[in-house]
């Protein structure tokens, strides 16, 4: 069953196609990867991809499906969303919309900015594409509204936590 991983405003779909022992063939964001995953300690995993090893410490968060991931150089929170959870969340979320600040969850390079200040954007539309750790990630609007501020330009290198785009929600008068 495909899952979605949410890291701040970045959403990546992931699906395990094949597993043979510690070897996994997965699709992440539409791209296929062959990974070796070895549990080193209770909450520490070594992930080998194309000859490069990354050690990840996986710590359960305060709520179900929320995890904190620590690497040697970075740390971030990941929410794992399965289709059933997404459906339940959509049925229980309120109508109140707040401003959205899209931030880089980790260091990266701005590949493409899909919007400019003053543009209208709908919830779920891609606002910006960032390359980090050899993967391109799409950051999507979590609210429908107007692009209030674009803090970066294409080609910029950004640190984790850097503000990328601010979106002001538009009131829905039905």
From TrEMBL:
Cited InterPro entries: Biotin_Carboxyl_Carrier/Decarb (IPR050709), Biotin_lipoyl (IPR000089), Single_hybrid_motif (IPR011053)
A Pfam family per the record: Biotin_lipoyl
UniProt keyword terms in alphabetical order: Biotin
The keyword Secreted is annotated on this UniProt entry: no
Source organism, top-level taxon: Bacteria
Keyword flag Transcription regulation: no
Domain Lipoyl-binding: 93-168
The protein's name: Biotin/lipoyl-binding protein
Source organism: Plebeiibacterium marinum
């Amino acid at each position: 069953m495909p899952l979605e991983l949410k890291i701040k405003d970045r959403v990546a779909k992931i699906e395990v196609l094949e597993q043979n022992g510690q070897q996994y063939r997965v699709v992440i964001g539409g791209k296929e990867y062959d990974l070796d995953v070895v549990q080193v300690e209770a909450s520490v995993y070594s992930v080998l991809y194309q000859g490069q090893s990354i050690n990840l410490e996986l710590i359960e968060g305060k709520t179900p499906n929320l995890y904190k991931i620590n690497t040697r150089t970075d740390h971030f929170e990941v929410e794992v969303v399965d289709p059933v959870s997404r459906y339940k969340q959509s049925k229980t979320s309120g109508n109140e919309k707040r401003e959205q600040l899209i931030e880089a969850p980790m260091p990266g390079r701005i590949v493409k900015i899909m919007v400019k200040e003053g543009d209208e954007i709908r919830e779920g539309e891609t606002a910006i594409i960032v390359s980090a750790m050899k993967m391109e990630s799409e950051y999507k609007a979590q609210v429908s509204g107007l692009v209030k501020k674009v803090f970066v330009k294409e080609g910029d290198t950004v640190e984790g936590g850097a503000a990328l785009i601010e979106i002001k929600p538009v009131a829905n008068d039905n």
